[in-house]
Design a protein that fits this description.
- It is a single chain.
- The protein has 587 residues and is α/β, with parallel strands linked by helices.
- It has three domains: 5-263, Rossmann fold (3-Layer(aba) Sandwich); 264-451, Rossmann fold; 454-586, GMP Synthetase, Chain A, domain 3.
- The chain has 21 helices and 26 strands.
- The protein has a five-stranded parallel beta sheet, sandwiched between helices.
- Helix 2 packs across helix 3, helix 2 (35-51) packs across helix 6 (147-156) and helix 12 (286-307) crosses helix 13 (316-331).
- The longest helix has 22 residues, at 286-307.
């Protein structure tokens, strides 16, 4: 049976009234909001939106780091008949203007003075904008409201006007916009319906076996659908609790304080955790080092044995007690039933690193256009380097050209104001065309590449760069890898060094460089790295081998424009930014 967000939230809040819904750290202490309080604040904020002049179907822009005010504003906008449109905190004023204007935003909710400044700069270009609400702080502008003033306005507003908005909504109505981070061009607004999000959240959480005793930690951008499913709409379905990290930098400490039972991280976060652990392990000596190596060997064999339903290796229990349990405890993952990765490709070497430490990472594959998950891996049904089986109740197929397609109640309504893009993504039979290439074996899906990212060499060979890039990122010192060579006679690669491994790189290569920039232009570093690339080449077909490499002076980043907020490489930007280096491979 289809349901609106309001129906699901009302029911869960009533059933779990006194239980913890949200936790946030204030003045060094974790403060809890119950489900009753959460619901009351959402309704109050919704009345405030109506009072500020938010009209049905109009947008509410939200920009800020994860916190209770973010999710309250999002749900309140939906209650009031509006469409929340999250904006990444790293977006420039012009990028904010594009989204707010496109979503026809009548209210903007901003985290602080820094985010407010962006909207004050563009306000003159947003004719629909009526008010700005600050999550934290205040401002003397008449159209800018502090959170306290905003909520007070809601307390004094008419209840009947809000109820009319709630009653007028249907489960098939659009209730939120998810703006794609976009590896090319302007972001598109994915129209997600009430049924899309309530059905998908329930299907995903039930598949994971999540319940009202589960704890999540929210730190990834809430403007992304994966984080919304895990820490906003997922808990609304089952009454679990969301704790908000203080910041990305404080995530390690917050994990140890919250001890989440379900933890989602994008590949870059897992890679950074891996790098820190390897850096710490490098200082081990003697018996401690030997025990760790012995345990990891058992861990990797045991991890694969579990996937194949085979007996665990001898002494697995000893390794679990001596090493694995201590590692999980140190990370704050000792109570974590399910560790998840999503949003971008992850290297097999990173998956195997954690697998060898008794932390199997479950891969989930999907996209904004199918409300997050299309496939899901579970502790009793997963395969390393495969992204799981189709979400229960949904459909999945591989088209004749290898493209992954999905169909079901999780598939979006279309792109707002973009019928051409909608027609390209959705066919007449309701299949969503993902743009990814993959294969299915025994029900498990594996992603082999992006359809549009395929490199066609001068010799006419179709090459999947992500497969090769994953292998290159398996080199310990490599942080990022971008394979190039479209319409060229051979493949080359742009590589970035892991900053935490710089000392090791300089020592092993015999380089006299002092900085990342110096290392990038040092021939000794280049030659040392090329030897390791040649080892990778041995496992590749001849047409896939990397003939030349170049080390970039700094890692790829969101700020540098080479990565989307979900850490996907913007190939077009990289190809343009480093055009001279790429041309040098072939001159």
């Amino acid at each position: 049976m289809k349901a609106t967000v309001m129906e699901v939230f009302d029911k869960t809040a009533k059933q779990n009234a006194g239980r913890p819904a949200l936790k946030v750290k204030k003045n060094g202490k974790w403060v809890t909001t119950t489900w009753r309080e959460y619901h009351e604040q959402v309704v109050t904020a919704a009345r405030a939106f109506v009072s500020l002049g938010l009209e049905p179907g109009k947008g509410v822009s939200i920009i800020g780091f994860n916190c209770p005010q973010w999710v309250i504003a999002d749900l309140a906008a939906i209650y009031a008949g509006g469409c929340p449109a999250g904006i990444y905190t790293t977006n420039s004023p012009d990028q904010c203007r594009y989204i707010a204007e496109h979503a026809e935003a009548q209210v903007a909710v901003v985290e602080n003075a820094a985010q407010l400044a962006k909207f004050l700069e563009i306000r003159g270009e947003l004719p629909e904008l009526k008010a700005i609400v600050m999550m934290n702080g205040d401002h003397d502008d008449d159209d800018v409201y502090s959170w306290a003033d905003f909520m007070k306005r809601g307390e004094e507003a008419d209840e009947a006007a809000l109820q009319e908005r709630i009653d007028a909504q249907d489960a098939d109505d659009t209730c939120t916009y998810i703006y794609t981070s976009g590896t090319t061009g302007d972001p598109k607004a994915v129209m997600i319906t009430h049924d899309n999000i309530t059905w998908t959240a329930r299907a995903a959480l039930e598949a994971l076996g999540a319940g009202d005793g589960d704890r999540m930690i929210s730190y990834l951008p809430l403007s992304h659908i994966a984080e919304q499913i895990v820490s906003l709409h997922g808990p609304i379905v089952n009454g679990s609790c969301t704790a908000f990290a203080e910041s990305i930098d404080a995530l390690g400490d917050n994990l140890r304080e919250v001890r989440p039972t379900i933890f989602l991280a994008v590949p870059r976060v897992w890679e950074k955790i891996q790098a820190k652990m390897q850096q710490a392990a490098a200082s081990n000596t003697g018996l401690k080092k030997k025990i760790a190596a012995w345990a990891r060997g058992i861990g990797l064999r045991g991890g694969y044995a579990m996937q194949e339903d085979k007996p665990l290796p001898l002494f697995w229990g000893v390794a679990e007690k001596l090493v694995f349990s201590k590692v999980r405890d140190a990370l704050g993952l000792d109570q974590c039933r399910i560790a998840v990765t999503s949003a971008a490709p992850i290297s097999k070497s990173t998956l195997e690193f954690f697998l060898s430490l008794g932390i199997p990472i479950m891969e989930v594959y999907g996209m904004s256009e199918c409300t997050g998950p299309a496939t899901i891996s579970l502790p009793n049904a997963y395969r390393t380097a495969w992204v799981g089986k189709v979400l229960p109740g949904a459909e999945l197929k591989i088209a004749e050209d290898g493209e992954i397609c999905m169909r079901g109640r999780h598939v979006f309504k279309g792109y707002f104001k973009n019928e051409a893009a909608t027609a390209e993504a959705l066919d007449d039979d309701g299949w969503l065309h993902s743009g990814d290439i993959g294969e299915i074996d025994k029900g498990f899906l594996r992603i082999t590449d992006r359809k549009k990212d395929l490199i066609i060499t001068a010799g006419g060979e179709n090459i999947a760069p992500q497969v090769i890039e994953g292998k290159l990122k398996g080199i310990s010192a490599v942080s990022q890898a971008v394979v190039v060579g479209d319409r060229r006679k051979h493949l080359s690669a742009l590589l970035t060094l892991d900053e935490t491994k710089l000392d090791q790189v300089l020592r092993e290569s015999g380089s006299s460089a002092k900085t990342m920039e110096d290392a990038a232009t040092d021939d000794k570093v280049q030659q040392w790295l090329m030897k390791q690339v040649d080892e990778v080449n041995k496992d590749l077909a001849r047409v896939q081998t990397i003939k030349k490499i170049k080390v970039l002076p700094a890692d790829l980043s969101i700020e540098g424009g080479e990565l989307t907020p979900t850490m996907k490489v913007k190939r077009k930007v990289v190809n343009t930014k480093y055009a001279d280096l790429i041309e040098g491979f072939y001159s």
